[in-house]
Known about the structure:
Chain A is built from 9 helices and no strands. Chain A is mainly α and 201 residues long.
Amino acid sequence: MQAGRGFSKRNLMSNSILSASPWPWYVAGPCIAATMFFLLWLGRRLGISSSTQVICSIAGAGAKWDYFKIDWKNQLWQIVFVVGLMAGGLFVSEVIPGSVSPQISPDTVADVEALGLTANEGIAPKEIFSWEGLLTIQGFIIIVLGGFLTGFGARWAGGCTSGHMISGMSELQLPSLVSSVCFLVGGAVSSNFILPMLFLK
Amino acid sequence: MKNLIPFFFAGAFFGIVLSKAEITSWYRIQEMFHFQSVHVFAVMLSAVPIGILAIKLSNKFGIKDISAAPIHIKPKVGGYRQRVFGGLLFGLGWGLHGACPGPMYTLLGQGMMIYGVLLLSALAGTLAYGAWRHRLPH
């Protein structure tokens, strides 16, 4: 694709920072803050894990547990928002040209390959994130147990990274700082100790 | 119903940003937790000072939201044990599969169906929390 002068969609994509891979932090960070503020302006709040509560409520879990007896009709915006997330993902994979595999640090490549996983091929290692991977013990633990922990933990803590790290810390809420620190501690433990335990026997 | 449309575009924009910043990538999350790059930290933490400033300025200048109410923050209630225990469990999962809820939906939208299994597992965790919360410390 020849990058040229003049305004056209192709040139916008290839000449601008939008074609950088990844978008630099000083573009992405303000975009995230802007989304957070836009939602506040709309009278709502950025906090994506609460969508799981809304989904369970719509599915009827309120019949059994109080936690899901919420006015979900007033929370439909969250469903629309996560559908938007999915549409955004679809847009990136289908419309924006030239999405490349993340060029991660060579040290990370080495660490990943030391676990016997493929590095630098797509977004996540196929050994785990595939139907075949799901049927391995490691893949099952990572996806099913790991996913369970994330859903459970986010609701227990009252928010995930968007709710606590972005919204909560922007609101200067101390509980969000505590949650955020614990997110990072938990992640550092599982990334540096549990993953190797799973793959190096 | 049409007053829901802005939320779709907010979500789409957010999903695009997460994807293009590569926050959705398991590799980037491992890189972050191995402290081998500041990229993901910088993305998340640069949003915070801007967010703080935006909220402070909107309060100072009396900027209202679309229902003409001042932009208000609901102080979080409840104890610290829920933040610590819940936070650690969230983090343990996050370090394993590299996806917070936002990337889960975004990657599912990109056609990576295995993230649907991840999402279903997170929903199961949400159900379990709803069922067990009265027995958990908060």
